[in-house]
Amino acid sequence: MLKILAFSSISLFVGTCSKVDLSAVNGYINPVSTPVAPKLSNQEVISGLKEALQVGIKNAVNVTSITDGFLKNEAIRLAFPPDAIKARQKAIDLGMTAQVDKFETTLNRAAEEAAKEALPIFVDAITNMSVQDGFAILNGGNGAATKFLKDQTTTKLTSAFSPKVADAISRVKLTEYWSPIMTKYNAAMNLTGGDKINPDLNAYVTQKAIEGLFKMVEQEENKIRKDPAARVTELLAKVFGSL
User: 173-178, long-range: CB within 8 Å, 24+ apart, which pairs?
Assistant: First the structure.
């Protein structure tokens, strides 16, 4: 009789309070369910990573290979070669500020021109991505995809960029601005006994153009990893939403 009354009391209580959880009645514990991320197939991981890289590299190349793509972007702008920074200041002291400004502008124009060569090289590296590469990139955290591209493409980018940079330097007559600065600086070094400078402009611009391009690719990659709004396709949302 007592059991019947107890059960009736519980029933009445439940009837007056719809939010009561009976999971603990009679010692039963109802397990709490947690959402489980959908399992990804190997093909989805690879396709998603390739898609992310294609989005990233296109955005990066599009913003660097245009006029002022390097020059007006302080994150990647090419400045005076570090080895020649003393020469820059000496040239300014000698009243050659306009030549210094023109020189730095043409450095960046050469980098912008060279960046146009990057897309097919990147696409080739992405096409040859393996399943192992894909999972390593997916789980590697910020910059993992960019590191993969660096490892796969730096040598090819250097080979492709170098003649474009040389052509751009020649076409805009960059050495016309470089030579007077270096001549005056080295003449001053003759008097003071300081070290003369003759940096390889072609190598400097090529290296900096590649570094700037990768910096923009990494920025795009990390945006996709962190910001759901940057996952512009269903596949990107599924793959990166699983992390």
Answer: 173/106, 174/103, 174/106, 174/107, 174/110, 174/201, 175/201, 177/99, 177/100, 177/102, 177/103, 177/106, 178/103
d(CA 96, CA 103) in angstroms, rounded, equals 11
Distance CA 219, CA 173 (A): 33
The phi, psi pair for 212, rounded to 5°, reads -65, -40
Q: Provide the pLDDT for residue 173.
A: 67
The whole-angstrom separation of Cα 142 and Cα 137 is 9
- Low pLDDT (below 50) residues in the chain: 1-26, 28-29
Q: Cα(141)–Cα(128) distance, rounded to whole angstroms? A: 21
Helix (H, G, I), strand (E, B) or coil at 145: helix
